[in-house]
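Internal QA ticket QA-208
Title: Verify multi-chain structure generation after dependency bump
Assignee: T.L.

Test input:
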Amino acid sequence: MAEQPAAHGDHDDTRRPARVYGVGEEPDPRFSMANERTALAWMRTALALVGGGVAVVSLSSLAGMPGWAPLVGAASCLGGGALALRSVSAWARVERALRLRLPLPAPRALAMLAAGVVALAVLTLVLSVVELTH
Amino acid sequence: MRLPGPPAGQPAGRGPFHRGRSGPAGHVPGREALQPERTALAWQRTAVTALVCLVPLVFVALRTHVTAVAVGAAAAMAVSGVLVWSVHRRLGQLGDDTRGYSPYTPMTLVLAVTVLCAVGGAAVGVSLWLR
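Actual output:
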């Protein structure tokens, strides 16, 4: 992505991060707010994964659940943490694209999230079946 | 992002999102279309979710005596306190404040809480599994 100089008197813009607000022109505020809400929705999804993971870990310490349960919880926590990092970087990339009037980046995180959740569900199912049959 | 300001001769900071000030909704022509209310609600939901996530983490860290996670959870709670303040400031920015603003700071605070929770939860999970 080519770096473009700031326009419309934004040279003295002190907003952070500079890699976003130091380039391009001020977009329509509705688009910026929609981008912000999308990032927050991703962040809540990440928090849900982390909260679910912590809940599984908590239950496994309380109710004598299978030995692998804490690992599933830990995996969910780590996935949520990675998704949170991704949501902030995606917000910055989209905001930058809006300011530069560039096409918006593809939402690849959606496919990654779906794959991760399905993998976690399959892992839990397989481990449950193995636990039941032994 | 810069929002349209109030009409000429009218002071800023009297929009519907300024606590304790009851300016009528639709004060600024065209402001409704910006949907600041939806954005404010999204921030509030996110802040509440971040706080709620910490409760089971603190509980399980204390119960399993994982000191490092208990310390991390305490740090996350401190960050959550700053987050609540930061969200309140953000709601003010979504009012009639015409200065440029960025959601980056509160967003990085939410990120910090989420990552602290994630690392803490994973640490407790692995320590339980190894026992």
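Spot checks passed. Chain B touches chain A through 47 residues (CB under 8 Å).
Status: verified.
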